[in-house]
Amino acid sequence: MTATYTPLANTTLAATATQITFGSIPATYRDLILVVQGSVTVGGGSTRLLYNNSAANFSYVQMLGNGSTAVSNQATVNDFGGLSNTGQSSLIINIMDYSSTDTHKVTLGRANGGFVYGIVSRWANLNAITTVTLQQSTGSFTIGTTFSLYGVIS
Amino acid sequence: MTGILGGLIGSLRGAAIPAYELISTVDVTTAPTSIVFSSIPQTYKHLQIRWVAKSSGSTGASSNMNITINGATSGYSEHEMVGNGTAVSSTNNFNQSDITLSRSIAQATTTGAVSAGILDILDYSSTTKNKTIKAFYGLTNVETLVRLVSGLFGNTAAITNLTFTTGSGNFTNVTRFSLYGIKG
Amino acid sequence: MTMTLIQTQTLATAAVSVDFTSIPQDGTDLLLLVSGRSNEVANQSMTLLNLNGLGTNFTFTRLQGSGSAVTSTTGTSGTSGFLPAANATVSTFGNQSFYITNYSGTADKSIAVEAVSENNFTEAYQTLQASTRIMGAITEINMKLGAGSYVAGTVMSLYKITKGSSGGVTVS
């Protein structure tokens, strides 16, 4: 019997990288949970998620605190805040109903770096997600950054 | 340890058993206006609900979702922090007939679009505490909203029934609510 | 097993702190869930997270709603959002989660806080917070309040989450 909450894959960077891909994700589960901890070589960027190698047909909304002001903005990308370049930071991302073939895919995210973010995005695509790629928009993920993927059944 | 040894009812150290278990999933097939979890087992410490939702309502891009506990229709409050793509705000409602998760269900405006959220209730089986829920959810279906919401059920009864009702229309057949128990 | 219970503590009487000691080092991340209330004579009490006995060497950025306004602040302590206190609606407890990544490693720690208090009136708090602590492995978590004590009925549950591989998922 499949456990409710199952670790699927993980990696720790032995060299800097601009991109990490989880592939061959089975349709066994209902939701995916992605946890990232680490830092980046250049600040001010964002971590973008691609599904099935696509960066198209996304929309997101976020609320963030920068330490002095509360901000909300939106865009047509799948960005999840920015890891810090001055210390450890984390992303906790829930991809809901990722294996569905009759709905768009909604992702709920928390980013915890120099700023704090709450993010919701939607991928306007009915295909099941089989590949998740994390791309750093500026600079690279640093050595030691960890990426862990989990599946949750329903 | 300061002030703890004489103050504990219990300090349970867990054996290596899975703490997160699926209790029940509702995959909608019959266009209900409400999704109900009844006879919730009292054997867990905390509950989590994960949902993806759509309603058949056609007024605007989203509808509210109203939560009632144990069938009660009074004694609720909610507070929220919401980002709408332009600004962040915080609001309150108290002395309510339910906990309202505002604009939490995507409506039929955009084919395929759904909303999603995760809701946590800690110590749900306590009989000495009012119940506090925490929900993080949102959608980007014409409207763009991300919310962190709290809700209060001002009743110390253990939670045995959770009902989620659309504010408009019926839940469509892409809707899914999953109830998980967390051991403690 | 991905998520396992380390310990739950339930207070029978008020306590100024709740401590989790000798945390096993064989997990990846920690998740602490708190259903708590303070007896401070106030509407709300601030929570203080200490790690390995210390509340120093933190930095945080907070986004917080009060039921009527939103603020963002930053600081260098373990303060981590509000819980209801003595003047809040009776029998009402707040709901907090603390997610700590790579807790047993040597790198500094990142802590994601998501917390709500509640009240049957205007003021109640919703908090998202990103905290960082300069330290190595976490062996102890100490939860305290800015003032007052946690009341009887406060429950704190600590879990470890363990990474792994299964299902043929690849990483590149």
Question: How would you describe this protein?
Answer:
The complex is a heterotrimer of chains A (154), B (184) and C (172). With 154 residues, chain A is an all-beta fold. Chain A contains no helices and eleven strands. In chain A, strands 1-11-3-7-8-9-5-6 form an eight-stranded antiparallel beta sheet, with no helix packed on it. Chain A has a three-stranded antiparallel beta sheet with strand order 2-10-4, with no helix packed on it. Chain B is built from no helices and 13 strands. Chain B has strands spanning 8-13, 20-27, 34-37, 46-53, 62-69, 76-83, 88-96, 99-106, 115-122, 131-141, 143-153, 162-166, 176-182. Chain B has an eight-stranded antiparallel beta sheet with strand order 2-13-4-9-10-11-6-7, with no helix packed on it. Chain B is globular. Mean pLDDT of chain B is 92; it is low at 1-7. With 172 residues, chain C is an all-beta fold. Helices cover 0% and strands 50% of the residues of chain C. Chain C has no helices and 13 strands. Chain C has strands spanning 3-11, 17-20, 29-36, 44-51, 58-65, 70-75, 79-84, 94-100, 109-116, 126-133, 141-145, 155-161, 170-171. Chain C has an eight-stranded antiparallel beta sheet, with no helix packed on it. In chain C, strands 2-11-4-7 form a four-stranded antiparallel beta sheet, with no helix packed on it. The model of chain C has no long low-confidence stretch (mean pLDDT 97). Chains in contact: A-B, A-C, B-C. Chains B and C meet through strand 1, strand 6, strand 7, strand 9 and strand 10 of B and strand 1, strand 2, strand 3, strand 5 and strand 8 of C.
Spatially, the strands of the biggest sheet of chain A line up as 1-11-3-7-8-9-5-6
Q: How far is the N terminus from the C terminus of chain B?
A: 21 Å
Secondary structure tally: strands of chain B: 13
Mean of residue pLDDT values of chain A: 96
Main β-sheet description of chain B: 8 strands, antiparallel
Structural class of chain B: mainly beta
Return residue spans of chain A where pLDDT drops below 50 for at least 5 consecutive residues: none
Q: How much is the radius of gyration of chain B in Å? A: 17 Å
Work out the number of β strands of chain A: 11
Mean pLDDT of chain B, to the nearest integer, reads: 92
Low-confidence stretches of chain B: 1-7
What is the straight-line distance between the termini of chain A?
A: 12 Å
- The ordered H/E elements of chain B are EEEEEEEEEEEEE
Radius of gyration of chain A: 15 Å
Quaternary organization: heterotrimer
Question: Could you estimate the helical fraction of the residues of chain B in percent?
Answer: under 10%
